[in-house]
Amino acid sequence: MTTTTPAATADAELPRLRLDTPPLLVLPILALLALPLVGSFPTWVTLTIAGLAMGMMIFIMASGLTLVFGLMDVLNFGHGAFVSVGAFTATLVLLPMQGWMQADSVLMNLTALGLAIALAMLVTGALGWAFERIVVMPVYGQHLKQILITMGGMIVAEQMIHVVWGPDQIPLPLPTSFRGVILVGDAAIEKYRLIAVAVGLIVFAAMFLVLNRTKVGLLIRAGVENGEMVEALGYRIRRLFVGVFVAGSALAGLGGVLWGLYKETLTAAMGGDIMVLVFIVIIIGGLGSVGGCFIGALLVALVANYTGFLAPKIALVSNILLMVAILLWRPQGLYPVAKR
Amino acid sequence: MMLHRLLSGDFPRSRFLALALLAIVAALALAPFLFPGARALNVAATICVFVVLVASYDLLLGYTGIVSFAHTMFYGIGAYGIGLTLHSVGPTWGAVFMGLTIAVMLSLALALVIGLFSLRVKAIFYAMITLAVASAFAVLASQLSDFTGGEDGRTFGVPELLRPGFRLIETEIFGTAINGKLITYYLVFFSALALFLLLLRVVNSPFGRVLQAIRENDFRAEALGYRTVAYRTLANCLSAVVATLAGALMALWLRYAGPQTTLAFTIMMDILLIVVIGGMGTLYGAVVGAALFILAQNYLQALMKQGSDALAAVPLLANLLHPDRWLLWLGVLFVLSVYFFPTGIVGKLRGAKKP
Amino acid sequence: MSEQMLSLTGVHTHIGQYHILQGVDLKVPRGELTVLLGRNGAGKTTTLRTTMGLWHASRGALLFDGNDITQAATPDISCAGIAYVPENMGIFSDLTVRENLLLAARAGEPDTARLEWIFGFFPALKKFWNQAAGTLSGGQKQMLAIARAIVEPRKLLLVDEPTKGLAPAIIQSLITAFRELKAMETTILLVEQNFSFVKSLGDTVAVMDDGRIVHSGRMDELAEDRDLQQKLLGLSLDTHQ
Question: Collapsing DSSP states into helix, strand and coil, what is residue B112?
């Protein structure tokens, strides 16, 4: 990096780019609105933390999808398959290592979990690579076929999970040191949820750093806007795309592991089930925007948790209403990516 | 000449296809007499309903080029409309028509709202939004259990003419009782036939040709002066209404309406599988595809079970052939079809005719 | 070392069913500024895009610095030494000025001395260094687009209508930039409709109509011959400044 940027000698009153703040405010406003509706502060805290945790996990699952779409105009309707496969692959490590998982040692728990996550991300990353080559690449630019084929791919993947792991649900108990609650005043906060929030923040921070501080990140952000120009500058955007697709699939796998542990049971359809919320999230956030996806995921999860408590029957409908409301405010989503 | 008008000039254009269609229609028309047994008749009735359900989806996907995941929602509205009305008002023809009207109105309204809201946006958006809306609807249907019967659905009585116990004539014809079940079957059969021919008429009309033009190149269609949003919305509404009618027929046949039989995402997948494998944009694909699919669903699985049992020694192979995994093979066939046979079975049959 | 930096021979390009380029023969001499003139729809932009590999020629050959680039992929063509400034400028609005230039500098960081040179005729870029490119004015975006193309030395610059919609003061900056580039013996292929802008800059000129080159020769000859100007370019000439 050149030692002094030329701007250091420029005018003092440089108009800095102002961050687009209104969407950021929706989150705290929503949370505060929910407080009087929920009534009790401790319950509100529990619900909010649950919402944040779930939101982080959905963010991890959705971020890859939105970047892939922004970058290459490909919507992988089969993205849920990576979530399911990630979760099930984790069992290949976690079930044999039950001893380590049940041991009352944070270190042993984390090691087992770490290995499981590593394997899950490796497998889903590889699966993503294969999926991109075999299923997606032949139908670049043909949206209709893309939707159909990726859906078909997901059916096949789900069924293969059944073939390999059997038709039943698989229970996945939490590691010992992650169980239980922390009491903050009257509010009971589950330990695992805090961990999920922490992991989500780490992933978000990592993505933010990569996108804003590395050349690859620059390429991705530029490619989302104008892929043709990136090629004209001499970069092979196809390789970039495959890389992002693989990374997105691996992230979905990570999300799957976290989500599986959250629900403590695994079903082959778990990925497909969460896809509806994932789609709502990426529409709300703005296709192609990681920041938007982050906020969208937290919003959707908070709404799901608050309405799950207040009026469980309309939980999913309320998220659709949220989506409609946001689209009426900003038709391209909260942080639309400036496309040429 | 009459055939030309009946089929709106849209002939099968292939000897094999014509034969297949004839065989299917004949089998369905004479099903109560040819195939004794409740199960066989149920298969026949399901085929009739699915032909209409898939054909109405083909109008949307094959002819207009719109991918929607809300089709089962309209199907469910039709079923629930009839079912809930008959359940609450009573088993009369008045209730049937009332339920039908309510269902069609509701479907039209929803189709209009979703259409106008989303058809302005990219296809991807539309697909996602319909998925979300249909899922929400399904959840609602099972949640509002006081009204809809929840996960278990609603059984209800039907007008006397359609009840199994009702006898039109005392004597049996060809060993089959002429009872309410038979009458219901023919109601389903002839309605399905009429609706299919109606769809055939629509896709071969000027309206249908504009839809196809929009599917090919909506920019050009717009430039030529066609308001594509209006056409798409109309196609959406028409498709929704026919799906609703299909749902009503199914409900009348089963005397039951429930989320698993109408709103489940597996049904949406079945529709997609049938329309692609049968042949998108042909309407006849729906006939051939639905017949093959429903037959396979009911009878192929027994075959698979035999294969699976025979391979019990090799767990992985046995699992692959397990009857529950028939969706796996269908999924593979589906993916292969989208790649290699985008025109489906009908396309292949028609192609085979060429020298 | 061939005399032509770029030569197109009998190039045809089809976009869908439209036959845009119908046998283009164009020679871009090394070290000179070649102007490509023509009315709207003549095929000038298509020529540049085909050269850049964004669209592929259905017939004919393109040679760059002696190498056949007819079927080459865009990134390879760019790495071979061609820089492209498209009509819509193609700047990345979400990225800052600095980040835009960073991407263009394939060697890693832009060379400081080179940057100072660019700031010489495009001072606004220095001022808005850390600002998102989308907030710049039209003229400043154009400056950034050109700066991106020259932040590292390239063998050939393809520039598509840089003066469109720009204020006279900005156009003056562009003239300065092109003069300095010419002094460094950069080969430039410049598409323009503003004849008075290119009159003094151009060495060679080619005129396009209906997907073909209908005239090519020296710029000073065309600048003298008002009748020829009228015939080739119609009345569109002097309506620009």
Answer: helix
Q: Which residues of A touch B133 (CB under 8 A)?
A: 320
Distance set, CA B355 to CA B296, B349, B350, C61, C204 (Å): 31, 12, 11, 39, 57
Verify whether the Cβ–Cβ distance A166 to B319 is below 8 Å.
Answer: yes
Residue whose structure tokens are 């056949």: C68
Mutate to test the interface with B, among A73, A134, A137, A147 (most CBs of B within 10 A): A147
Question: Does A16 sit within 8 Å of C126, measured CB to CB?
Answer: no
pLDDT (tens place) for every residue of chain A, 340 residues total = 334 444 333 333 333 444 677 888 888 888 888 888 878 888 888 888 899 999 999 999 999 899 888 888 888 888 999 999 999 999 888 888 887 777 777 888 888 888 899 999 999 999 999 999 888 888 887 788 888 888 888 889 888 888 888 888 888 888 877 888 888 777 778 888 888 899 999 999 999 999 888 999 999 989 888 889 999 999 998 889 899 999 999 999 999 999 998 888 888 888 888 888 999 999 999 888 898 999 999 999 999 999 888 888 788 888 888 888 888 888 788 887 755 3
Model-level pTM?
A: 0.82
The answer to whether B67 contacts chain A (CB < 8 Å) is yes
**Structure tokens that stand for B221 in this block:** 């269609």
Chain B residues 258-287 with a CB less than 8 Å from chain A: 265, 269, 272, 276
Neighbours of A247 (CB within 10 A): 20
What span, in angstroms and rounded, lies between the C-alpha atoms of A169 and A172? 10
Q: Coil, helix or strand for C84?
A: strand
What is the value of ipTM here, to two decimals? 0.90
Q: Do A234 and C109 touch (CB under 8 A)?
A: no
Between CA B213 and CA C126 the distance in angstroms is 51
C2 touches A at CB < 8 Å: no
C93 closest CB neighbour out of A11, A225, A237: A225
Give the phi and the psi of residue A262 in degrees, each rounded to 5: -65, -45
List CB contacts (< 8 A) between B276 and chain A: 148
The neighbours of chain B, by the rule of 3 or more Cβ pairs under 8 Å, are A
